[in-house]
Amino acid sequence: MTSRERLMATLRGELVDRPAVNFYEIGGFDIDKNDPDEFNVYNDPSWRELLELADEKTDLIRMRSPVICPADESCRSEFFKTEIYMENGSRFTRTTLNICGRTMTALSRRDPDLDTIWELEHLLKNTDDIKAYLELPKEAISEQIDVGSLIEEDRKVDDRGIVMVDTSDPLCCAASLLSMEDFTIVALTEQKLFHSLLQKLTPPLLHRTEETAKAFPGHLWRIFGPEYAAEPYLPPHLFKEYVVGYTGPMVKIIQKYGGYARIHCHGRIRAILPYIIEMGADAIDPIEPPPQGDADLAYIRREYGKSLVLFGNLEIADIENAEPPEFEKIVSSCLRDVTSSQGKGFVLMPSASPYGRKITARILANYETIIRIVTNSN
Question: What does pTM read for this prediction?
């Protein structure tokens, strides 16, 4: 089978020649190892062999989003201003929102040796900020969608894999406006207000989902954000409130156009899996093993494998820190767990990828072990 055939058969719950294997962001992100930009950690020579391994040996799942532009730039710019500047070798982005006589700011930092963004200041800091944000006219947050880049990427990847549409959900958009501490307090103690914020942010996301799914049908999607309402942050009944009610409609739109909705949720998922089933999701990732998660793969396969395609469950910390002989046992155990009972489909995949500038010999050896064991599994 080609990688595309293998992945699509896995999503449909059909038999495959061997388990699909994917390195998640490696081979998923749009990476140019030849880009000399100082903020491109992937141009370090230590990354080259790992990137080539992903491109040549894995079942590629390109993670892409449609091009999104403000539907009314003049309206948005009336309220939002963005400034990007350099300081001490780092790149900072400051966003300012002026509304209802209030000035709110957010500040993020990107360092050259790490492919991550540090949120130093969040836009909303209290309930008064939320109430002011709710006064934004809908035109200020409405969007125009262009899926041309998705169609082109699907053509380019060809039989080497598939394109996965990557999208946040309303909870992610709302929670990320606040610090984690402020979010959990508001979501627990000001539920009516937090619902109002979700209701404000949901229509643009549903529009984005509808326009993209209609123009780019039949593809896998990754929906990230539900983990904000997982334990230990919020109790399970609030997952039903804040995820099922708002992310569920996105799932239905994706499926209406023949697509597959994969819910991304790190950490403790045992108590919320029934709600993910209730939403009608097709798949879940990354199914972190204990102690990062709270349910082992064999249990999830047995209890939910007939409803969900499972993506996981190799922990990135093991890839980075385990000695190769020990890591080989971890990979073999993972495959045994998923074959211990019948299920819809499975893709062997890490929970994340390294985000530093250097790839060590141990990390490379462990990724090579993943390929070797899967290739020899049938």
Answer: 0.96
